[in-house]
Write a structure and sequence with these properties.
heterodimer, A: D-Maltodextrin-Binding Protein, domain 2, D-Maltodextrin-Binding Protein, domain 2, 2 domains, globular, B: mainly alpha, 14 helices, 0% strand
Chain lengths: 340, 281
């Protein structure tokens, strides 16, 4: 914890520079997903930001894309900064729902370019990995996504992320033998046909906490999970394994809804939140990955070596621009397929 | 006495009374009617003008199944909640006062506990590796775990648990006012226990039964958290579908259409109930 404190001080000092222009008691609203993620964002980002700039941060949540859209359309924007999924960030930017990021305040050169657009910067990144119950498959531990679809060798319920988004469809296609470089545009017919083969064995998880509960209790034996959630289970002594083979890296993004009344404060918040120090201390506590390229050097070795970036040679990049363009169409089909 | 109050209120000052209700009326119009009207208007204007959202919604077997699931679960939850809630309400009415306040407090305490926490607790109890399945298997009653969650069984159990107090409270209010001497009179007139229940107690408790059942049924139709966590995607309910349309797909047209269909059916059922039982209730 000493380290976290140290990093926090570093972040605060950095923010002080940004604060020189900040005037009297301002307030901005930061919206995220609630739960542990938002608690840690508050601790590692919002509190040092307020300490450094004097700008109070009110927290709201959970993130709701419908609400964000309505705020922008009605011109009554009460959220100044929102944590969203990267595919939504890319789409919302294209749809004109977001303010452009002010890169004179936010230092673009330090940020992982995969997660930066004109309208969004990464918040934290994570990998979808294959997680499994070590005791269920003593003889032969699963290696890649094909294990998810091999009911004979790896029997048991499997858990996948419930909401439409990058991850599950890619895993189905990779398991079906599609080469990583040929993934996009996604062959949806083929992906859904592959998923049909295990549909009755799927228990969907809709929140990170639920995914942990399902895997830890043995309710499911294998599945696709956020890597940070599996780390947290391992840290509590649960016998769960991770395979990094074909890990799929994605990110959350920070965005400013168009018409925000505290745009400048939000940009300063982004600058602090994406600084090397703030990203490192958040990553240590949350099990996620920093999106600042200089953060890894600031993290203790035992955390740094578990970062998805160490496994990027095994990983497959998700095409967020493809998702931004096709999100609605895929989503409609996804939910209809689930309900069938 | 009843006649007197009735006549007094009907010859009161309607103009002034109406004025006094104006703030409340405005509140209802601005915060309830207007938003609903805007949402519903989007169902016929997005993405283009017309009824295509309704055609898509009512023409798809997938969506029709979601309507079916919603009404099936809501009906089951209402019936089971009544079967559990009626005896509880009756017991509360005839218990010694001290004991009945303890039982009432337990009921209320369950209502005040966080909904999400209660739903997660059911998830842990009902799952294949959960306490219920482990116990039944340990006792040798079953050899394969029962599928109690991620389907409509789980949703029905979880929602019934949440809804029982909403039956007990209005029902208790009605039953408490029934004079026990009436049941004694029934017995004296030769009614069996069953006849006393069926011909005396239930008819007298009817207003409480109907108001409780209607409330539970309507709340169940739009329930979100419990079906989302205890149900599977293959047997989704309507509130979840609406949330998907609006929150995830930003498709306000379809979301509004689904909301209007739900609203119409609910209104129709309400009117039907008033027609059938309103006079007596």
């Amino acid at each position: 914890m000493k380290l976290a404190k140290h990093l926090k001080t570093g972040a605060a000092v950095l923010a002080l520079g940004l604060a020189a222009t900040a005037a009297q008691a301002e307030e901005m609203v930061f919206t995220s997903w609630g739960g542990q993620t938002q608690d840690l964002q508050k601790q590692h980002w919002a509190e040092p930001f307020t300490a450094a700039t004097g700008i109070a941060v009110a927290h709201d949540g959970p993130t709701d894309y419908g609400k964000l859209q309505v705020m922008v359309e009605s011109g009554n924007v009460t959220w100044d900064l929102v944590d969203v999924e990267a595919d939504f960030a890319a789409k919302a930017g294209n749809d004109g729902l977001l303010e452009p990021i002010d890169f004179s305040i936010v230092d673009r050169s330090q940020l992982d370019p995969r997660f930066v657009t004109d309208y969004s910067v990464g918040s934290f990144s994570y990998a979808f990995v294959l997680g499994y119950d070590v005791n269920a498959y003593q003889a032969d531990q699963p290696k890649d996504w094909s294990a998810l679809f091999d009911l004979e060798k790896y029997p048991g319920k499997r858990s996948l992320y419930k909401w439409s988004g990058p991850g599950v469809l890619e895993a189905a296609l990779l398991a079906d033998g599609v080469a990583p470089e040929d993934l996009y545009p996604l062959d949806l017919d083929r992906a859904f046909a592959k998923l049909d083969t295990i549909k009755s064995e799927i228990i969907w998880w809709s929140t990170g906490a639920q995914s942990q509960q399902l895997l830890a209790s043995g309710e499911v034996s294998i599945g696709q999970f956020w890597c940070g959630r599996v780390f947290l289970l391992q840290a509590t002594g649960t016998d769960v394994g991770i395979s990094w083979e074909q890990n799929l890296t994605s990110a959350d993004s920070l965005v400013v809804p168009k018409g925000s009344k505290n745009k400048e404060a939000a940009m300063k918040f982004i600058a602090l939140a994406t600084s090397a120090e703030a990203q490192a201390s958040f990553a240590v506590d949350s099990g996620n990955s920093p999106i600042n390229v200089n953060s890894a050097a600031l993290m203790p070795a035992e955390y740094a070596e578990k970062l998805p970036e160490n496994f990027s040679d095994l990983g497959v990049d998700l095409d967020l621009a493809y998702w931004a363009a096709n999100r609605d169409e895929i989503g409609a089909r996804w939910y209809a397929w689930q309900a069938e | 006495m009843a006649l007197l109050t009735l006549s007094r209120s009907s010859v009161g000052l309607p103009g002034r009374n109406l004025l006094l209700t104006l703030p409340a009326l405005l509140l209802v119009v601005f915060f309830f009617l207007l938003p609903v009207a805007i949402l519903l208007s989007r169902s016929v204007t997005e993405p283009t003008l017309g009824l295509h959202n309704y055609v898509e919604l009512l023409g798809s077997p997938t969506y029709l199944k979601i309507f079916y699931n919603t009404f099936l679960v809501s009906s089951l939850v209402t019936i089971i909640s009544l079967l559990i809630g009626f005896p509880v309400a009756w017991a509360l009415a005839i218990m010694p006062r001290g004991l009945s306040s303890v039982v009432f407090a337990i009921l209320l305490l369950s209502m005040w506990t966080n909904l999400l926490a209660r739903t997660y607790a059911w998830m842990v109890l009902l799952q294949r590796t959960g306490v219920i399945n482990k116990t039944l298997m340990g006792l040798g009653i079953i050899d394969q775990p029962l599928q109690l969650v991620n389907n409509l069984v789980g949703v029905t159990i979880g929602m019934t648990y949440i809804m029982v107090p909403f039956i007990v409270i209005p029902l208790h209010g009605v039953i408490r006012k029934i004079d026990p001497a009436i049941l004694q009179a029934a017995a004296l007139c030769g009614a069996s226990r069953w006849q006393a229940l069926r011909m005396v107690l239930i008819p007298l408790a009817r207003p409480g039964i109907f108001s409780g059942a209607l409330m539970v049924f309507v709340m169940s139709l739009g329930y979100f958290v419990t079906p989302a966590l205890l149900g599977g995607t293959a047997n989704m309910m309507l509130a979840e579908l609406i949330a998907q349309f609006v929150q995830s797909l930003l498709n306000w047209g379809m979301g509004g259409a689904a909301a209007l269909v739900l609203l119409s059916v609910t209104m129709a059922l309400y009117i039907l109930q008033v027609r059938l039982f309103g006079a007596k209730g």
